[in-house]
Amino acid sequence: MPRQGRYSFPRRLIHFAALGFGAGKVPVAPGTFGTLVAVPIYLSLRETGIVAYALTVAAMFVAGVWLCDVTERDLEAHDAPSIVWDEIVGYLVTKRRRRSVRFSAVTCGSAVPSTFRCAD
Fold first, then answer.
1. What angle do CA 46, 52, 54 make, to 5 degrees?
2. How far is CA 66 from CA 24, 62, 72, 94, in A?
3. What whole-number distance in Å separates Cα of residue 77 and Cα of residue 9?
4. Which residues contact 93 (CB under 8 A, 6 or more apart)?
5. 88, 20 Cβ separation under 8 angstroms
6. Contact (CB, 8 A) for 92 and 42
7. What is the mean pLDDT of the chain?
8. pLDDT class for 5, splitting at 50, 70, 90?
9. How far apart are the C-alpha atoms of 112 and 96, rounded to whole Å?
10. Who's near 45: CB < 8 A, 6+ residues apart?
């Protein structure tokens, strides 16, 4: 049984990040909401150079492995649906430096995977 409420503040911050800053706690389609968290991150990174973008996404990936591992152990649940850091980083990987800010271009990266998620 997970030890809810007994974590230090730094540990709670780790969980908060792994849970997509709260998006993973949404009761329906947490992965989709995790992907939506990635949209403003992408919009803030889209004008950076390709090297800075790649390094940022790579750093998020590496940090995410640790964040998710810690959170998964604390929740005592393998591949918990509430852990949505992978959706955030995955969205950033799929957008890889597209400069378009059209609504359709930004949302297509989340709408198509969400459609397939329904069959999950």
1. 85
2. 17, 7, 10, 22
3. 21
4. 57
5. yes
6. yes
7. 83
8. low
9. 16
10. 52, 53, 56, 92
- Rounded CA-CA distance 67/12 in Å is 11
State the Cα–Cα distance between residues 83 and 71, nearest whole angstrom. 8
- Structural Rg of the chain based on CA atoms: 15
pLDDT in tens, 28-43: 999 999 999 999 999 9
Q: Which residues, in sequence order, are CB contacts of 64 under 8 Å at separation 6+?
A: 18, 85, 86, 88, 89
